[in-house]
Write a structure and sequence with these properties.
By secondary structure, the protein is α+β, with helices and mostly antiparallel strands. The chain folds into two domains: 193 residues, BirA Bifunctional Protein, domain 2; 42 residues, SH3 type barrels (Roll), CATH 2.30.30. It is 26% helix and 29% strand. It contains six helices and twelve strands. The strands form two sheets. The protein has a seven-stranded mixed β-sheet, with helices on both faces. The chain has a five-stranded antiparallel β-sheet with strand order 11-10-9-8-12, with no helix packed on it. Helix 3 crosses helix 6. The protein is globular, with a radius of gyration of 17 Å. The N and C termini lie far apart (43 Å).
Length: 251
């Protein structure tokens, strides 16, 4: 039996618009860190406001933290959550070689996207408000290919690729435990050990890829993730640091 980590609340909902919105609402009346899980979402969303498909039996939860760091440092928790997800999925399915981490915030299973992460905060005046880390995992069913952006990785499910079945609530228990361990490491030792562990499972490290920002498309070799979380691409014009982009793998 997994022991729920100290210092984190646990809230379960049958149905919400999105766990991100539900968590933001609860954060205004709940001073502590907590998780919100919903078995059904009617208005789930992913990066850049895109819709997130959530077939029945899949996982949707949001973690609220009271981050005290500057916004750029607090945002590095996308890497913390990526690692926690990867370790949880490995515990469930038993084969770490099947999983890889795609910058900035996806988890891959046998090359397909099995999980995604979205960070939000409603701070004002340069001050960071409660940090919401939304997590979606295809535990049972993968969305249809036409439900994702063109040229994106094929969505896959844990059950479809490994035959393993786990319900959302026990998955949350394991994820919360792994996250709490890594959060403690992040608070005590900073980003460096998280970065090292993340790079050890990075997808396409040393290989060519394309990063699309809102202004340009940059092709290069994935060389590193720097100490601030930037994607480092080796391009014909030199090394480029990219803070935010959609990443696409090249054949």
């Amino acid at each position: 039996m997994t022991v729920w980590p100290d210092g984190y609340g646990r809230i379960i909902r049958d149905s919400v618009g999105s766990t991100l919105d539900e968590a933001a609402h609860l954060a205004s009346v709940t001073p502590d860190a907590f998780w919100v899980l919903a078995h059904h979402q009617t208005s789930a969303r992913g990066r850049r406001g895109r819709a997130w498909s959530m077939p029945e039996g899949n996982f949707a939860a949001t973690l609220i933290l009271r981050a005290k760091e500057a916004p750029g440092v607090a945002a590095l928790r996308s890497f913390v959550m990526s690692l926690a997800l990867c370790r949880t999925l490995t515990d469930v399915s038993g084969d770490p070689k099947d999983y890889a981490l795609k910058w900035p915030n996806d988890v891959l299973l046998k090359g397909g996207k099995v999980a995604g992460i979205l960070l939000e905060s409603a701070g004002q005046g340069g001050q960071l408000g409660p940090l919401a880390i939304g997590v979606g995992v295809n535990l049972r069913t993968a969305p249809a290919s036409d439900a994702v952006e063109a040229n994106s990785l094929e969505p896959v499910s844990l059950h479809g690729q490994t035959g393993v079945t786990i319900d959302p609530e026990p998955f949350l228990d394991q994820l919360a435990r792994h996250y709490a361990i890594l959060e403690n490491q992040f608070l005590n030792f900073g980003f460096a050990p998280i970065r090292t562990a993340w790079l050890a499972q990075a997808a396409r490290l040393g290989e060519p890829l394309v990063a699309r920002t809102g202004r340009e498309e940059i092709a290069g070799v994935f060389e590193d993730v720097d100490e601030t979380g930037n994607l480092m691409l080796r391009t014909p014009l030199g090394l480029r640091a990219i803070a935010a982009a959609d990443v696409f793998f090249t054949p």
